[in-house]
Amino acid sequence: MNKYTFICNAYKDHMQLALNLPSLRRVYPDERIVIITDGDPALEYADFAARYKCELIRGERLYSLECGSQITQRMIDTYLESSGDYLVKFDTDTHFFRPLASEPPGTASGCIWGSYGFRYLQGGCRLFSRSCAEQIDRSGILKGNRYKDITAWCPPTAEEEYKDLGQVSDDFIVRDVLLTLGIELTDYPEIFSAGYIKRWRLMDIQTLTRVLNTDKRYAITHPWKLDDVKWALALKPLLVNTFASDATWQDTIANLPQ
Considering the entire predicted model, what is its pTM? Predict the structure, then answer.
């Protein structure tokens, strides 16, 4: 029986997945990996699934506001239909360096971001135990219309942003679910996600050093975007040269989509 089930949603980012999926399969050669295409018909996903021994689910587009929490419920359903002690939700720009050395410290764990009463598990990589996923599923909280109302999950300062995007935030929906059900958010020291700072060129040196993770302090870091890797190769040769002997850089460059 697998210990982990890794699940990601992919939409118009098959090249991004091509950059980071090899690192996951290298670190976890036998665990269950599921790629859910969120309404994206690109044929490349089938090639990835075959090459890296992943399950492929051709799902309909559920990230839009009118779908509410359906995208999160679909992930829970996909996990619970098979075995595995932990659901690991990861983004296509999440990079894997080594196996997790310690057990998840809580039933819902990951890299905690936010402050002033709005703390949440950053969605680059977060883990639910099976009991946690089952509790969420039994509650039915994701199955109704609650999260079709943007005010139910979105911080007021971000409402206009998400209305303009026309999509939900799985991170913020999960935050409200855990808060409502009284499930504690637990920081996982082996995972680092840079949160709302999405681009390397905008990060301070400390944050970027954590993401690049050359000392393997973290098992998993986020984000590793294709455009940022290309930026580093083209415009920041000193950055690349500093880490040129690192196996992660070598693997990343070797798998760089053209």
Answer: 0.92
